[in-house]
Design goal:
Number of helices: 30
Distance between the termini: 90 Å
Mean pLDDT: 90
Shape: elongated
Helix content: 55-70%
Number of domains: 2
Low-confidence stretches: 1-14
Number of strands: 12
Radius of gyration: 30 Å
Strand order of the largest sheet: 1-3-2-6-7-9
Strand content: 5-15%
Length: 677
């Protein structure tokens, strides 16, 4: 065993200790990431390149140490990782928290701090996966800590990798007297993790994108390259040079082919990762005319040195900058983010990172590095806990305490009174704080993926034993009425069944979703199954309500209403609720001196009035009873944000569950007559 280790160590010594091509790849990866995030160039795969680089470098270090000593000094290894990562992480997380408190909505601040806490302990990737985060969303929902997902995966790898490699090398030498078992193990991890990510992409894309189990194959592939480095170093240099250029071309070419609509990670990440792997593999032989000729230059070397700080800083600035400048965020602003974050990364590299990495005390005494890194991490965690539970929110409106008189809608007079008080609405801070989470608690709704409606227990509300059945059919603007129909069904002894799918019009329209980059075919098939289910249960009343689609057609509306009419049920068409188009709770929390601006004008909030009129006309032609919802929200040309002490909307278009419940008196007279008839 000793002779084997000595031979392996001698082979390792022949490998280059410094790889300028890898430093160049590090620069290429960060430029790809920043360019894609900031909208400078739509190129993807930078993080995947970073994963395989990390796997190769860390795997190489660990395997070399195992070959020389037969073990790994965990203290030294983790001390190096702490010196490299902890200072920049602590600064970024804390600085982002301060900027968030100063500039963003109080509601987002709390969510951001929870993300910051998860990032502090390197678990934010799991939080994002569980929350179903869309990494490429462009709707203001992104967190300034979202980019820590990749660092979380790498840091989880750093904790586990040295232990696993030592164990696997020991077993492999014991059984085979070589590294065959290690190779087979890494190949199994690569194959299993890739397959899991590929299959999960279509079932649960956020989990596939952020999960460690679906991404670890990229790091393991890098370790596999490190394990093969000695053999790769003997490659013919001419062939090695060709491979490096082919790899660089593959990396860039496939990165440009991937778009935000490409299902990721899926199979698409293989392109950039394989390209980087070819550059790394060919570079092991140090070819004279390889891609290193391009990658080894002072500019790329400098960018590679500051790449960690650039990655940390560019994303929080990109997310927070629009709130900081308080104007429309344009292309020039995105370019400013690129420049500002790069300059800040340079400063952080020389002022902070180099001092920790090159500190004589920390290098000479590894346990000091571990303790220092642990202290920085603990301090960051403590700062996030304080931000979550101690620091007061910058609420611009309302008194402290909770109001027992927040009754919401109490007739047309309450709406008119709210319009008159729109500049100084009656709302407490307690009620305002609850509003973003004040969503309906009754009724079910399917998300984007399902292609078939399946009845579930939570779809049945009201009086489940009622002799009369009401179906509420539509999209999320149908689901938002759940609390109202829960009370309505109980009052009128009617069973209410909610049949809803997000973004899916009940009328037979072809819908193209920007976030999918294609036609929303799941809606078409889901609608067909929903109509079949409604026809099967033969309800007494069918309520149709939804957000009007810009692709509405008369033929599509007629197709659905005729199918519903054929069931023999009484049809009710509930016109769509107002569409403010901005986050109402955020507006109320931030605009203390101009709360009247949170009250939208009635002529601006009727979404797509032409198609709205078309749907209403088709509904009436098919015998539907029409309920115009606007009087419950608007009066005298305005649609107030607060009515009867209750915030009307929990986001930019959906009403709060509390306000929906208060609308029972608005709906009940009509439904009492309809059910009686």
């Amino acid at each position: 065993m000793t002779r084997h280790r000595s031979t392996a160590a001698a082979e390792t010594e022949r490998l280059r200790k410094y790889r300028p091509d890898i430093q160049g790849l590090r620069a290429v990866a960060i430029m790809m990431v920043v360019s894609m995030h900031c909208g400078i160039l739509d190129i993807h795969g930078g993080v995947d390149v970073s994963f395989v680089l990390s796997g190769f470098l860390i795997g190489g270090q660990l395997l070399a140490e195992i070959d020389k000593t037969g073990k790994v000094s965990l203290t030294k290894f983790w001390a190096r990782r702490f010196r490299r990562l902890a200072p920049g992480t602590a600064i970024t997380i804390t600085a982002t928290a301060i900027l968030s408190w100063l500039y963003v909505s109080p509601f987002r601040f709390r969510d951001y701090m929870t993300d910051g806490l998860s990032a502090s302990v390197s678990l934010i990737n799991w939080r994002l996966a569980e929350n179903g985060t869309d990494y490429f969303a462009n709707d203001g929902s992104q967190s300034p800590y979202q980019h820590f997902w990749s660092l979380g995966i790498e840091e989880q790898f750093y904790v586990v990798a040295p232990i696993v490699l030592v164990v696997m090398v020991w077993f492999s030498r014991l059984i085979f007297r070589n590294r065959v078992l290690v190779t087979l193990f890494l190949m199994a991890v690569v194959g299993g993790s890739f397959y899991l990510g590929y299959t999960m992409t279509t079932k649960n894309q956020p989990m596939a994108y952020f999960s460690t189990t679906t991404r670890i194959w990229e790091l393991a592939f890098g370790v596999l390259l490190a394990l093969s480095a000695q053999q790769l170093s003997r490659m013919n240099t001419g062939l090695a040079g060709v491979l490096t250029w082919l790899g660089l071309g593959t990396l860039i070419g496939t990165g440009l082919l991937i778009t935000k609509h490409t299902p990721l990670p899926g199979y698409a990440v293989v392109g950039p990762l394989l390209g980087a792997a070819l550059v790394i593999a060919g570079g092991c032989a140090a070819p004279s005319f390889g891609a290193e000729k391009l990658l080894d230059n002072p500019v790329f070397n400098f960018i590679g040195n500051v790449s960690y700080g650039w990655y940390l800083l560019h994303w929080p600035l990109l997310i927070l900058f629009p709130s900081m400048i308080d104007r429309e965020f344009g292309y020039s602003d995105r370019f400013r983010v690129v420049v500002f974050s790069f300059l800040a990364a340079i400063a952080m590299h020389y002022i902070v990172e180099k001092r920790f990495r090159e500190s004589v005390k920390l290098v000479a005494t590894p346990w000091r590095g571990v303790v220092t890194g642990g202290a920085l991490t603990a301090s960051t965690v403590a700062a996030m806990v304080v931000a979550l539970h101690v620091i007061p929110l910058n609420l611009a409106v309302g008194s402290s305490g909770s109001s027992a008189s927040a009754l919401g809608y109490e007739g047309i007079d309450s709406v008119q009174a709210a319009v008159a008080k729109r500049a100084k609405p009656e709302i407490t801070q307690s009620d305002l704080l609850k509003s973003p989470k004040d969503q309906t608690t009754h009724g079910c709704i399917d998300n984007l993926e399902p292609t078939k409606f399946v009845i579930r227990d939570d779809c049945v509300i009201g009086d489940p034993q009622g002799k009369r059945t009401v179906v509420v059919f539509g999209d999320s603007h149908s689901w938002q009425w759940g609390n109202a129909f829960q009370e309505l069904g109980k009052n009128l002894h009617a069973k209410v069944v909610t049949v809803a799918k997000g973004g899916c019009s009940p009328e037979a329209y072809k819908i193209t979703r920007e976030d999918l980059g294609r036609q929303y075919t799941e809606c078409d098939s889901w609608r067909t199954s929903a109509l079949a289910y409604i026809s099967e249960i033969k309800p007494d009343v069918i309520v149709v309500t939804n957000r009007v689609q810009p692709t509405a057609t008369r033929s599509g509306a007629e197709e659905t209403f005729k199918a519903l009419k054929a069931t023999g049920a009484q049809l009710v068409y509930l016109t769509d609720t107002p569409y403010p188009g901005f986050s109402v709770p955020d507006c109320l929390a931030e605009n203390g001196k101009d709360l009247a601006s949170c009250t939208a004008k009635a002529d601006k909030v009727v979404d797509d009035p032409r198609n709205r009129a078309l749907e209403r006309e088709v509904a009436e032609e098919n015998g539907a009873k029409v309920i115009d919802t606007i009087p419950a929200f608007c009066s005298d040309g305005y649609c107030p944000a607060v009515i009867g002490g209750q915030v009307v909307y929990f986001d930019y278009s959906h009403m709060t569950g509390s306000y929906a419940k208060s609308l029972v008196p608005f709906l009940q007279p009509t439904f009492k007559k309809v059910l009686a008839g």
